[in-house]
Design a protein that fits this description.
This protein is an all-beta fold. The protein contains no helices and eight strands.
C-alpha cells in the first residue's frame, strides 16, 4: 500500500548555516516522495549519509524536496540511496547560503 502524507507545517527544519557551513535543498518529482537520497563530498566514497524526500510547503506551493541542513562548503554529489546506475547531481555549497537544485525523475 502506498502512503502519501500531506506536508506538515509543524515539521520545520532548522538550517545550521554560517561561516563555512551551508545547506542544500534538492527538489524532486512527486514520484520520489518518501525515497531516500544520499550525499557525499565530491571524490569521496559514498558513506550512507542520507535524508528522505518529503512533501513540503514552500509558500503556498507544495513541493517534494530533501534538505541537507548542515554541509561544509565545497562540491558535493547526491544520488538516490544505493543507486549505482542512476543520475548523480552536483551541488556547489557555499558557506552561509542555501544551494538549490532539481533532481531528475
Amino acid at each position: 500500500m502506498e502512503h502519501h502524507h500531506a506536508p506538515d507545517p509543524a515539521a520545520a527544519i532548522v538550517l545550521d548555516i554560517g561561516g563555512d557551513i551551508g545547506a542544500a535543498v534538492v527538489r524532486a518529482p512527486d514520484a520520489l516522495d518518501g525515497e531516500e537520497i544520499e550525499i557525499r563530498r565530491s571524490g569521496t566514497p559514498w558513506d550512507g549519509t542520507h535524508v528522505a524526500f518529503h512533501r513540503r510547503l514552500l509558500g503556498a506551493e507544495q513541493v517534494v524536496a530533501a534538505v541537507f541542513p548542515h554541509l561544509p562548503s565545497g562540491r558535493w554529489e547526491a544520488r538516490r540511496r544505493g543507486d549505482d546506475e542512476g543520475p548523480v547531481v552536483v551541488l556547489d555549497v557555499g558557506g552561509g547560503r542555501v544551494t538549490r537544485i532539481d533532481f531528475p525523475a
